[in-house]
């Protein structure tokens, strides 16, 4: 009888096992589910070049959609028609067939930007698009267009221990949280949205112990390409722009002051509000402390999800 009682306590107190997206038909908050294809989709309305979009889909645990069935085209059309000002084309993955070009012969042939990292042949190549009328055609890859990501429900990632719709989170037992540095750079608002979509949030430092744990993570992971600087990482705090000469007050995404959150150590001479434009908070790779930066500049960022066992 005593053993039975202990077994019941273990079951009630042990960590819960959540169903996968394949079972729940739920995924990231920015993806929609299609019952007929048993897959999740997201239409990115920001314009990107053709060679950039596959990586961005992969960051979200998906792939650039291959228009293999008419159901995929219908799903894209239903999302695309909500944005009549986006133009007429959406990047999709190659389906293995030859398609006509959607572009007339250009009057001016553009040359690659010397700072662009893509080879010359990539710059002048053609990538597949779907038109507003549902046709699959090709378009110059250097154009900046919206794109659509897709992941089959059976392949949608879910980290059961951390409770997030993503891979590559690292659980730090000493502070009871999971952390991840996505392999992409975003402005603060988009970084915030990315963490939220996965079921996490931009990291909020609550103690010196947590700062040291996160500092170790950012110093052992490879740099994320494309950041304004590689040694700052967006975190979950920011300030409203200063008005009437009043000092800025930085607060976390949970509306706490840094002191209320439990950690408020800035790097030397920070925050300095350079050019009166630095309203967003970052962690400085060298010492793990805080620094202010311009919110619209792209930086790497850290997502966090607390684990309650």
From TrEMBL:
Keyword Nucleotidyltransferase belongs to the record: no
InterPro entries: C-type_lectin-like (IPR001304), C-type_lectin-like/link_sf (IPR016186), C-type_lectin/snaclec_domain (IPR050111), CTDL_fold (IPR016187)
Keyword Phosphoprotein: no
C-type lectin domain mapped to chain residues: 174-304
One of the Pfam families matching this protein, by short name: Lectin_C
Signal peptide: 1-18
PANTHER family to which the protein is assigned, alphabetical: MANNOSE, PHOSPHOLIPASE, LECTIN RECEPTOR RELATED
Gene from which the chain derives: IML1
Matching SUPFAM superfamilies: C-type lectin-like
Keywords: Signal
Organism, as annotated: Manduca sexta (Tobacco hawkmoth)
Name of the protein this chain belongs to: IML1
